[in-house]
Write a sequence for this structure.
């Protein structure tokens, strides 16, 4: 079994015409969310390759936690070592 210790995030993805300059606001044309985090991505990739995987990490007790864990759960990753904390689930803002 592979054990992955790392981040479990919810990616906040904005489609923009161009990246903003410092201090500038650029309007987005679309917004999506997707599970992410480098640790979670590695765990899911290994599970999809057929290897048993255990994820060690933390999510918050908030609305983002379920979405952040959804693909790991669907992929059969062992989440018994994932803890809920009083901090927020990690997020990453991604501009495409």
């Amino acid at each position: 079994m592979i054990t992955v210790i790392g981040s479990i995030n919810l990616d906040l993805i904005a489609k923009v015409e161009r990246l903003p300059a410092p201090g500038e606001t650029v309007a987005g044309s679309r917004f999506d969310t997707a599970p992410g985090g480098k640790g979670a991505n590695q765990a899911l990739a290994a599970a999809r390759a057929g290897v048993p995987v255990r994820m060690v990490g933390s999510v918050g007790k908030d609305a983002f936690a379920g979405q952040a864990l959804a693909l790991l759960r669907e992929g059969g990753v062992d989440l018994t070592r994932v803890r809920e904390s009083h901090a927020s689930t990690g997020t990453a803002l991604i501009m495409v």
